[in-house]
Amino acid sequence: MKTKKELENDEKTCSSILEDNKGHEKCMFHHDLELDHRPPTKEALLPEMSKSYKRLLRSLGEDPDRQGLLKTPERAAKAMLFFTKGYDQSLDDVLNDAVFDEDHDEMVVVKDIEMFSMCEHHLVPFYGKVSIGYLPCKKILGLSKLARIVEIFSRRLQVQERLTKQIAIAVTKAVQPAGVAVVVEGVHMCMVMRGVQKINSKTVTSTMLGVFRDDPKTREEFLNLVHSK
User: Fold this and answer.
1) Buried b vs exposed e over 203-215: b needs ≥16 C-beta within 10 Å?
2) Cα end-to-end span (Å), the chain
3) Could you read off the pLDDT of 85-123 as tens digits, one per residue?
4) Where are the beta strands (DSSP E) in the chain?
5) pLDDT for position 12
6) Residue 16 — pLDDT band, cuts 50, 70, 90?
7) Cα separation of 185 and 199, whole Å?
8) Mind telling me the catalytic residues?
9) Which terminus in the chain has less CB density within 10 A, N or C?
10) Torsions phi, psi of 57, nearest 5?
């Protein structure tokens, strides 16, 4: 049981860090916080996208009317809509009242969340794992919602650096914790299938906010938990 003085100190610490987090959010571009939803419905997009894929096949010298490719344009359009379904989701929709008041002040870590995304430079996939940690300030998030947040921002045209930052900011907006840490490890098919063609290369990015940025010991604790077997 914490003493009254310790509780007061916790309150001051949380208030100070929350103000710092708000300041950090303000310096982000709007694109880093929320992307606009795709305006038309999927049903409206499908025919036009299918036509575009058909034109692409013709540009490659293929016959889109041959048996093997007859339904490929529609299949490819449906696949692309699935790969980018994060545009149709918002943070509020995903949270869905899964933020709970809880007097828990120890680190929460969910690691090795599988992630699939699309490189916005080449429109080829990259995939990997995401580890998220946060230090609560009187509010906690349903654990499955961390994976859902990853899904929102990974199922878009992305670069890994921005994806990492968006996840961290989304968790901050959701529960206003004392700090958030996100580490993403990705394999990029644009490096594996083309260009340098390095099949064993991995890209690691991180975003540290609040106490994870300011306190080396807190950051070290998170990284040790992430790298532990």
Assistant:
1) eebbbbbbbbbee
2) 32
3) 999 999 998 998 899 999 998 999 999 999 999 999 999
4) 99-101, 108-119, 125-135, 139-141, 157-158, 179-188, 203-210
5) 54
6) low
7) 14
8) 119-122, 160, 188, 190
9) C
10) -60, -40
Domains plus CATH for the chain? 4-21+98-227 (3.30.1130.10), 42-83 (1.10.286.10)
For residue 142, what are the CA distances in angstroms to 58, 84, 102, 139, 187?
A: 48, 24, 11, 10, 28
Q: What are phi and psi of 28, to 5 degrees?
A: -80, 150
Give the separation between CA 25 and CA 172, rounded to whole angstroms: 9
Q: Locate 143 and state its tokens.
A: 């654990």
d(CA 6, CA 9): 5
d(C-alpha 53, C-alpha 69), whole Å:
11
- How many whole angstroms separate alpha carbon 1 and alpha carbon 5? 12
